[in-house]
Amino acid sequence: MTLFTELQMDEQTLQAVNEMGFEEATPIQAEVIPKVKQGHDIIGQAQTGTGKTAAFGIPLIEQMEEDEAHPQGLVLAPTRELAIQVSEELNRLARYKGVQALAVYGGQEISRQIKALKRRPQIIVATPGRFMDHMRRKTIRPKYMKMVVLDEADEMLSMGFIEDIETILQEVAEERQTLLFSATMPKRLQTVTSKFMHQPETVKVKSKGLTVSNIEQRYIEVPEKQKFDTLCYLLDITPPELAIVFGRTKRRVDEVSEALTRRGYAAEGIHGDLKQAQRDKVLRKFKQGTIDILVATDVAARGLDVSGVTHVYNFDLPQDPESYVHRIGRTGRAGKEGIAYSFATPKERSHLTFIEQTTKTKMIRQDIPTYAEAMHGRYQQVVNKLLETIKNEDVQDLESAAKTLLSGHDPVTLVAAALKMNTNEPERVEVHLTEEASLRPKKPKGGGRKSRGNQQPRNRKKKPYKKTRQPNERYGNKRKKTV
Ligand SMILES: Nc1ncnc2c1ncn2[C@@H]1O[C@H](COP(=O)(O)OP(=O)(O)OP(=O)(O)O)[C@@H](O)[C@H]1O
Ligand SMILES: [Mg+2]
């Protein structure tokens, strides 16, 4: 156990950490914070939800000069939502210092960001595409950056992002400190990292597998056509506080969230084709609990930290074991418990085994739940609601009506009828989902991943960064499939 007071942090950061409710440092924080302060380049690997953000955030904040005219710290993140979240966490940590973080990401008006940059934030948290836009416009000058963090580093160095990252790093001062963080760090990345890191130290928090032990992992072998009813039955049997359902494609996400809504669940979808304002709105509703089910592509798989997510459902298995680790890691964070269900079609058995082997975990097999179990779950919810009403509400005005009813009817029959009346039968509403093909194991070769679809071929020659580009030219917009 390491206390934050043992990590030679300054008073202001200690106070902020205290107010955030952190009592002791997590293992990755205890190991990384002193090492970063000593000036090392770090490759940090620790399981999902174990506080990697503060592990790089605290030393990053503490090394910023408060009066510098240019940003000196850069955090790159793969999604807009993650960039926002990381900047918020940094600002909480920096609350008592004269240090500020600003998130810049695609989908938000660039003029608004340029205005915000005038307030001279010390730290920029960015998605790579938008950061390059600012680089070209010279609204951010990377050469003053003395620390660069790649959050979700393996994702950032995969095929979809590597060229952008190289372009950015070429512009950042050579004597910078570079930090890489992720819950998954495939060995094949080592060759890539040696190119732009200076004698990096690897800090890997010891664990049995890649996933945290407080997530109960289950799988259900279920034919494609039965997946949706299975999901609904599970939701009925154990209603989650908040749940994320991962689908393979954007169409899938749209169809599943619509179907859930039709069946009466409070669900909405999030994926890369939605306008940023819509993505923000959906995530906000989820965090507030206005909706309790978020249906998502892998856009929500990495880094997102929403407290109260008790369940993750892999409606479709992910292609990569790494993606499995990150998806299920949206629950069981900061020591809390969580449950992850993965649906595998009979043809996907071997893919499931491949995921288990790579992540060094074992999923518990569970049978497809039955209609009767789902119905029981639904009754139970009505019973709970009834008991809550008795506890929390004044029902006096209905008591004489109740007495009249009771005088003419058997009380058990009466309550049973009331329960039945209030319970909707599952499956009553017909829904239609387009079928997805089953997956087969696909072992990744070399340095990149293949899941990002229509990206450029991996060994394509690197495009030199041209300073003559027009500022408003969309950089490489033909290049990658968003999720
Ligand atoms: N020392 C601590 N004590 C208690 N809670 C902490 C501590 N450090 C971080 N947390 C909280 O734990 C949660 C998870 O942290 P964080 O998002 O940094 O995890 P992560 O390791 O980056 O996970 P992922 O791999 O999914 O990105 C956050 O809500 C964070 O505020
Ligand atoms: Mg993280």
Notes on the structure:
The protein has 483 residues and is α/β, with parallel strands linked by helices. The chain has two domains: 2-205, P-loop containing nucleotide triphosphate hydrolases (Rossmann fold), CATH 3.40.50.300; 209-452, P-loop containing nucleotide triphosphate hydrolases (Rossmann fold). It is 38% helix and 15% strand. The chain contains 17 helices and 16 strands. The strands form three sheets. Strands 5-6-4-7-8-3-9 form a seven-stranded parallel sheet, with helices on both faces. Strand 12, helix 12 and strand 13 (293-296) form a beta-alpha-beta unit. The two termini are 39 Å apart. Magnesium ion is lined by residues 52-53, 151, 303.
What does this entry show, briefly?
Its EC number is 3.6.4.13. This protein is of the alpha/beta class. Helices cover 38% and strands 15% of the residues.
